[in-house]
Amino acid sequence: QGKQKKARKYAVMKRMISLRDERIKEKDRAKAPAKKEEDPSAIKEREVPQHPSCLFFQYNTQLGPPYHILVDTNFINFSIKAKLDLVQSMMDCLYAKCIPCITDCVMGEIEKLGQKYRVALRIAKDPRFERLPCMHKGTYADDCLVQRVTQHKCYIVATVDKELKRRIRKIPGVPIMYISRHRYNIERMPDDYGAPRF
Predict the structure, then answer these.
(1) Which residues in 30-67 are b (16+ Cβ under 10 Å) and which e?
(2) What domains are there in the chain, each with its CATH number?
(3) Region annotation Disordered: residue ranges (predicted)?
(4) Strand pairing partners for 185?
(5) What pTM was computed for the model?
(6) Could you tell me which residue, 90 or 5, shows the higher pLDDT?
């Protein structure tokens, strides 16, 4: 019979005794952190996020024509694949004037994609697009869009990315524009208690 080969385990650490273990002598043992006693007369502070005044339940009063639409990188790419004119298709979807907005992060993301996405870059540099400067660190476009939409509720987010859609659905009062069947569609926010629909 042949010898059975044992698979070598990677990243196996030696087990070490913690400094608070009873097996270590009393003088060498680490002391547990002392708990601070709470003062019952002290005022307890809680930070509660302030709800925006523009929301009437799920209905967003800041949304109205001309609509400002935050465009994601993949939305431009899918529009090119579906052979859709970005601004015209937005107007056909919403029946109103639309101003597509593009952040520095999204622009940087398109530029990083290189020669393959040169058509998307040319569309993004269209003078009809409003350019929004980014003041934060890093260039992750999804975080940038979520942060901007959380602060200002006056935008509609245009994206095809499932993960970004999932994150934006958690923010009340922000509609999502997406592409299906070679045309733009919009996800409406549910209206509570018969509130007027967007």
Answers:
(1) eeeeeeeeeeeeeeeeeeeeeeeeebeebbbeebeeeb
(2) 63-187 (3.40.50.1010)
(3) 22-44
(4) 178
(5) 0.70
(6) 90
- The answer to whether 150 and 170 are in contact (CB under 8 A) is no
Q: Which of 137, 146, 138 is nearest to 169 (CA)?
A: 146
Question: How many Å apart are CA 173 and CA 88, to the nearest integer?
Answer: 24
User: Which pLDDT value is given to residue 111?
Assistant: 92
DSSP the chain: -PPPPPPPPSSPPPP---TT-TTS-TTTSPPPPPPPPPPTTSPP----PPPPTTEETTEETT--SSEEEEEPHHHHHHHHHTT--HHHHHHHHHSS-EEEEEEHHHHHHHHHH-GGGHHHHHHHT-TTSEEE---SSS--HHHHHHHHHHH-TTEEEE---HHHHHHHHTSTT--EEEEETTEEEEEPPPPSTTPPP-
Give 54 or 174, the one with higher predicted confidence: 174
